[in-house]
Protein: histidine kinase
Amino acid sequence: MRRPHWPRRVFAQLLLSQTVVTVGVTAVTAGLFLAPVSRELDRDAMQRALSIARVTAQDEAIARAAEQRDAVAVQRDAEQIRLATGASFVVVTDRDGIRLSHTDPARIGQRVSTDPEPALRGESVTAIQRGTLGRTARGKVPLRAADGRIVGEVSVGISDDSIRHRLADMAAGILLCAGAGLAAGLAATLVLARRLKRRTHNIAVADISALLIEREAMLHGIREGVVALDARGRIRLANDEAVRLLALPDGAVGRPVDQVIPAGRLADVLAGRITGTDLPAVRDDRVLVVNRMATADGGAVTTLRDRTELESLVRELDNTRSLTEALRAQDHEHANRMHTLLGLLELGRHEQAAEFISEQSGSHAALAAEVSAQVQDPHVAALLAGKTAVAAERGVRLTVSPDSHLPDAAVDPRALVTVVGNLVDNALDAAAPGPGGALPAGEVFYRTRPAVRVALRAEGAALVVEVADSGPGVPAELRGRIFDEGWSSKRAPAHRPRGLGLAMVARLVERAGGTVAVGDDPLGGARFTVVLPEALHIAPVEA
Structure:
């Protein structure tokens, strides 16, 4: 014989278990309620029998007849009382416990079946006893003569059948109420089970466990950050990658986004105040691409992709493309110079040819020597050397301020290169003529050559970085927005978004405890000033 299987579906298990519990609770409750009712009915029957016995014992005629052992008179009066009160029996005995009355006349003259001694001693007795008429609730009192002498006993009984009849009448109402409660409980259980069926998509309990295990493995195994929010904007779930990318503190789960993420574009995107797809945002020195999808319960699931390395590669590709174009232009210029040198030699002007060669070869060496003398940090020096070639190709003169000095003592060279590189790129974009530069198409070219000036000054452990350009500058009303993530006054190219460079600079400077400001410069454009208070190692002073 096959054993019945426990249902696999969640709603079926809930329905079955709740039904069993509801039926069991209802049955136990009804039983617990009926038990004291039965005892109360027994107690009420005993008190009623006792009251009838006391009233009977107060009848002087019965007392005189019992004292005289006149069974006929006692039987007549006792039967009248029994019929009038509805008692099962009214038994009167003499001083020896011999019946003088009984519902069965054949038993008159016999000793009672239960002990009469307590009543004959003057005590009132109530009890549930079994006698010749079966189980009854009894009340016994002494029968006294006019002078107070005990001349017998009065015993009155209420049959158990009448008690059970009353209990049955009351039980019907109790069971009816219990049935109504059971029906209501089963209906509520059915509604709850149907709702749970919809919410769980009718899946099995084992499937829930498997789904939970798979979800945990998937969330913590993927390389994208995942953050789930509830309807009130509190973080409900964050996988390991999201914790790393967002630098979430311990205990972030259960707290609102605005309490764990600094105010800015990233917090606005996560909270849904900024909508869209593939939205760029910055967290410290990381560039993130954020997508947010609302859920049916009013919450949202946000995915985060780390675009920092890709952004660096795109920037390096742009630099490589610019360097390639610069080399192509230099190759063309080198050919012109060789033609010029060949012409000077053919004309026999050997001295002019020698001067021309010295002048051309010394200019690049002088520029490299100037940069390396002022900027001793190899990372920043290499960056400026490369940017100088790119600037030259774009028609911009990039110079390092004569009072610049940067020792090879940077605490975080990578962050310093990011700050200087983004500021120089922004200045080149503003100063460079042509498409993508400061001048729109059709506008008159600069009267003077576009320029970018970089100044690096070490002041103890602090470092001051200034980057100025000859572009159109930044209007005063926009200076509070240029550091916002995703905001830019220039059209974004197809291969990468705008509005991240200055935002990244602001985040890095803020993390280092520094300041960044923008103002006007004598070159005609904007000047960005960054102060990093603990950017350099201070060499120990020998005693």
Summary: Confidence is low (pLDDT under 50) at residues 435-447.
